[in-house]
Structure formats: C-alpha cells, structure tokens
Amino acid sequence: MWDVIPQNTVRQKDKFSGLIEEELRINRKDGKARWIYLNALPITFEDQAAAVGTAFDITERKLAAQRAVEIQVERERIRILAEFIQDVSHDLRTPLAIMFSSIHLLQRQLDLDSNVMRRIDVMERQATYLKNLIESLTTMSRLDSKVTYSFQPTNVNRVLLEMQAGIENLANEKDQHVIFDLDMDAPIIRADPNELTRSFSNVLNNAIRYSDPNTNIIVRSTMATSHLIVSVEDEGIGISDRDLPLIFDRFFRVNASRTNADGSGLGLAIAKKIIDMHNGKIEVESSLSEGTTFNIYLPIPDLR
Ligand code: ADP
C-alpha cells in the first residue's frame, strides 16, 4: 500500500457550495511520487458530519505540464546560445579575414626562407581551422533553432548530380576516383535541397579526407520499400568499433593524430541533424583500414 505523505497540498474551498478541492502529492513505499486530485462536499449522513467526493490520479497530467515547462526552458536556452554564437561568429569573421589576407600577402613574397614559409603554412592551417569551426558552429546553432528549413518537392539525384563536379575536383586533388551510381527511377521526395546538399557534402568530404590516394568513393542512390537510400562508400582508414557509436556526437573527433587538423568535429553531427529533420536516419558501417559506408535513409511520401 501507499505510504501517504501529503506534500505540496493545494487547497481551496468554494464559499457557496462548500466544495473542498485538494491536490496532494503522495510518496509511495517504492519511492515513486504520485499526484492525486480530491474533491469533497460536506454532508450530513445519519445525523453525522460526513463528506462525499471523488479522487483522481493526475500524475500524468502533472508530469506533462512539467515536461512542457522543461521544453520551454530548453528552447529558451537554445535561443540564447544561438544568439550568442551568431554574435561571436560575426565578431570573429573580420579579424579572420584580415589574418587570411596577411597570410596570402606573405606567401607571395619570394625571398622567404623555408623555415618562415613553414610557419606561415601553420598559421594558414590554424586560421582555416578557426574559419571552419565558426562556420560549423553557426550552421549548428541555425539548425537547432529549427526555423530555417524550406521543404519542397526534391529530386535527390539532381541534388547529387549538382554536387558531382565539385566533389570530383576535390577527389582528383588526392588522385581519388568518385563513381556515381544513381537509380534514375528514384521518386521525388519532400526535402530541403540546400540542407540535403550540406548533409551529403559533409559525408562526402569526409570520405575524401579520410581516404588515401588511388582509392575509389562510390555514391549510390537506391530504392527500398519506403525509403530512398543514399550511400557513400569509401576505401579509407575506417573507424573502430569503439568509436563508431560516438561519431555523430557534437565535437567528437576520433583521434587528433589521424584526424584532419582543419576538422571541427561537427560535420557528422550537422549531417545527422539535417537527416533527422527530414524524418530520415543515417547509419554507418566501417572496418579499420578497409573503409566506411554511410547510408542515409530518406522517407518516400506515401501517395496511396
Ligand atoms: P571532423 O571535422 O573531425 O571530420 P566529423 O563530425 O565530420 O568531424 O567526423 C567525426 C569523426 O569521424 C572524424 O574525426 C573522423 O575521425 C571520423 N570519420 C568521419 N567520416 C569518416 C570516414 N569516411 N572514414 C573514416 N573516419 C571518418
């Protein structure tokens, strides 16, 4: 049975009808708390003072109200954080642009010795890292505030084909070969093509960054019963079983020595966030030193 310890009792009495209402919080013996609503009307029964009333368990309603408050607080927290990130990013852009133009001017000087040149290259890499970090932070906070999606009928193959030239150029710089194998019967889906481009691009850039020269990267689109699947398969360095569950976490980077210095650790978190907002899912399979495949599932609208 319950160990009834009334807590936080809310009482009120209607001065015309005499109806008494109470909300009680009681603690059960198992430590779980429940909320009960009671109402009672004083009556006289067989010449004795008595009361007639009802009791309801309102725990679910109370918890729902509490969750609503928590969600509101969380939204406000995200809004303040997003605003802060946008302001800071804006303030950092100008000094970074000045650093880049100074670095480029220095790189054009012909009489620099190799030691100075190396230091200038280090400065450029660090400035690039900062620039990428600021861009990723701004994107993440924009996506968190959920207001910017523009869903429309979208041909996913076209989205991929529009990225093809850029991706092939990047891969060619590393002597890699990109193969596009697209199912041209893939249906039109409801999506935000710009955000999908960003998501695919993060996954594709990783395939290039984490693969050696003379390897292949295959980009596929295939149909399943209720989903369109976009997969990106590489023959790169792979991800260990220990790290696989963590790679979509914000700021997770496998290991500084094997990871590109210019990465922010936000690329896959952004890719996943975008796919989640499309009611899709992103999965990964990988073997160390053999390669990695990302499968992105996007729901096909049910037209029945
Ligand atoms: P980063 O900016 O560090 O690349 P990401 O969020 O894009 O951040 O990726 C998280 C981590 O997952 C990376 O640090 C990298 O080690 C690993 N990773 C992502 N894609 C691949 C891939 N195709 N092959 C091997 N490792 C990958």
Main sheet attributes: strand count, strand direction, barrel closure: 5 strands, mixed
Radius of gyration: 29 Å
Oligomer: single chain
* Distinct small molecules bound, one entry per kind: adenosine-5'-diphosphate
Strand content: 25-35%
Name the helicity range: 40-55%
Total strands: the figure is 11
Order of helices and strands: EEEEHHEHEEHEEHEE
C-alpha termini separation: 52 Å
Query: Roughly what is the average pLDDT, rounded to an integer?
Result: 89
Which sequence of strands runs across the widest sheet? 6-8-9-11-10
Describe this structure in words.
The structure is a single chain. The chain has 304 residues and is of the alpha+beta class. Helices cover 41% and strands 28% of the residues. The chain contains five helices and eleven strands. The chain has helices at 59-107, 114-144, 156-173, 193-209, 267-277, and strands at residues 3-13, 20-27, 33-45, 48-57, 152-154, 177-182, 189-191, 216-223, 227-234, 281-287, 291-299. The protein has a five-stranded mixed β-sheet with strand order 6-8-9-11-10, covered by helices on one side. The model has no long low-confidence stretch (mean pLDDT 89). The structure holds adenosine-5'-diphosphate. Adenosine-5'-diphosphate (ADP) is lined by residues 202, 206-207, 210, 234, 236-239, 247, 252-254, 259, 263-269, 292.
